[in-house]
Amino acid sequence: MVCVTMTMKKLLTVTSNRIFFGIHMEKVPTFNVKLPSRSFTKRFMMESVPPELPADTVRRIAAELNCHPTDQRVALHLDEEDKLRHFRDYFYIPKMQDLPPIDLSLVNKDENAIYFVGNSLGLQPKLVKTYVEEELDKWAKIGAYGHDTGKRPWITGDECIVGLMKDIVGANEKEIVLMNGLSVNLHLLMLSFFKPTSKRYKILLEAKAFPSDHYIIESQLQLHGLNVEKSMRIIKPRQGEDLLRMEDILEVIEKEGDSIAVIMFSGVHFYTGQIFNMPAITKAGQAKGCFVGFDLAHAVGNIELHLHDWGVDFACWCSYKYLNSGAGGLAGAFVHEKHAYTIKPALVGWFSHELSTRFKMDNKLKLIPGASGFRISNPPMLLVCSLHASLEIFREATVKALRRKSILLTGYLEYLIKHYYSKDKSETKEPMVIIITPSHIEQRGCQLTLTFPNSEKNMFEELSKRGVVCDKREPNGIRVAPVPLYNSFHDVYKFVRLLTSIIHPAKTKN
């Protein structure tokens, strides 16, 4: 057992100018809980973190180009040097003229939209149509023979592509299953991992978890006849803060862990964009005897994950956001191999049965150990096709390289916004843009959540009319997510110019 105070001091020594997870040392309580080792923590801190901070990169390039850091030449130079820029051509980029809310008097109708909503629905890979048409053609020509023929036999279609998920989530192939939708998978996992007793009956989650997660946890508690108010333990940010502090999460786990059956957190919070320290939460929770799981909807394809090495008990994710599989795309789930023979699905079906004897039809279940045993039905092949097309792009690009670009891309966006609309300008009653997403690059992925406290304009509507595709989330946030697979640095530059044209029309006339 190690003292949290000492461990956090170690975690804080990342570099001379970086703070790991922004922990406030002066208010850290002293209590004992088993946390990750130094090597374990180092792994979580991502090998892809660049050697210099994004703001330093922007200033350095501006100095080399002999221009101001906000100059368009910086964005163009960053795009020229971007080794991943060709992946943009792998996707269909919507045109201005095709967007429903567009005001054609404000845009060039033939230009590409600025698509910053990959955190809600990723763009369509061009290869999707080819793969879907292959299966439609197979169905048309050979009918039922397609079940065991071709590069994606329909009986094992999901198994044919599951290996492409390994590096994205950091797991062994047998720990991953592709099935259903995220909410269905979370229900199935909770049915197996949440086994409340008279002493251990709570589920711990973060405040303002995604509504589906909240409803699932509520219904799971009700299913067991538990009092939701007493059994649903929600951790809230401190008064006046938007983000959860790591020390507060650890304190709750330490103090109440003996009564917590399952810790169920997001990997990345959907609204704030905050990355939660998954290995530390996992270690702390398991040290108190809790199962620890994560909803990775906003983490998968966005940040590096090492679910197996972190020892996470279970996880689930959708694939239509950063994984670009299309609306309602095939979701995924993870069950750590340590549970392969001890945690069994509460609900089973034909595809829970071992393939070698599945077609004997003797109604004697031979359960597949681990994650694959949680499958109930045969895979939806058209959804397999769209996910397959995207996962092949990830294999070529690699998660590490994408994360490295993402840090700089989002950092560039943050730099420009802070330059024009920092908190300091509020004193002069200048329009202000507040970024509620963490400022430390280790604590966030692609997304920045923006608020406009002293603007009288509907910023979401104004941006939408000008071809910026982002989204609005109550109470007052606009989520902006430059995705490294298909967004450019020039997209970021143009977005900030459009933002300025709305806030300060006179400044952008020239």
Automatic annotation (TrEMBL):
- Positions with a binding annotation for pyridoxal 5'-phosphate: 182-183, 210-213, 266, 295, 298, 320, 350, 378
What cofactor does this chain's UniProt record say it requires? pyridoxal 5'-phosphate
Which pathway does it take part in?
Amino-acid degradation; L-kynurenine degradation; L-alanine and anthranilate from L-kynurenine: step 1/1; Cofactor biosynthesis; NAD(+) biosynthesis; quinolinate from L-kynurenine: step 2/3
One Gene Ontology cellular component term attached to this UniProt record is: cytoplasm
Q: What family is reported?
A: Belongs to the kynureninase family.
Has UniProt tagged this entry with the keyword Lyase? no
**Where found in the cell?**
Cytoplasm
Q: Which InterPro entries does the annotation name? A: Kynureninase, PyrdxlP-dep_Trfase, PyrdxlP-dep_Trfase_major, PyrdxlP-dep_Trfase_small
EC id = 3.7.1.3
Top enzyme class: hydrolase
As one GO molecular function, the record gives: kynureninase activity
User: What reaction gets catalysed by this protein?
Assistant: 3-hydroxy-L-kynurenine + H2O = 3-hydroxyanthranilate + L-alanine + H(+); L-kynurenine + H2O = anthranilate + L-alanine + H(+)
Modification N6-(pyridoxal phosphate)lysine occurs at: 321
Species name for this entry?
Dipodomys ordii
* Biological function: Catalyzes the cleavage of L-kynurenine (L-Kyn) and L-3-hydroxykynurenine (L-3OHKyn) into anthranilic acid (AA) and 3-hydroxyanthranilic acid (3-OHAA), respectively. Has a preference for the L-3-hydroxy form. Also has cysteine-conjugate-beta-lyase activity.
Entries under HAMAP family matching the protein = Kynureninase
Entry's Gene Ontology BP terms = 'de novo' NAD+ biosynthetic process from L-tryptophan; anthranilate metabolic process; L-kynurenine catabolic process; L-tryptophan catabolic process to kynurenine; quinolinate biosynthetic process
Instruction: Report keywords, A-Z.
Output: Acetylation, Cytoplasm, Hydrolase, Pyridine nucleotide biosynthesis, Pyridoxal phosphate
Which Gene3D superfamilies does its entry note? Aspartate Aminotransferase, domain 1, Type I PLP-dependent aspartate aminotransferase-like (Major domain)
Q: What protein is this chain from?
A: Kynureninase
Assembly, in brief, is: Homodimer.
Instruction: Give any Pfam family that matches.
Output: KYNU_C
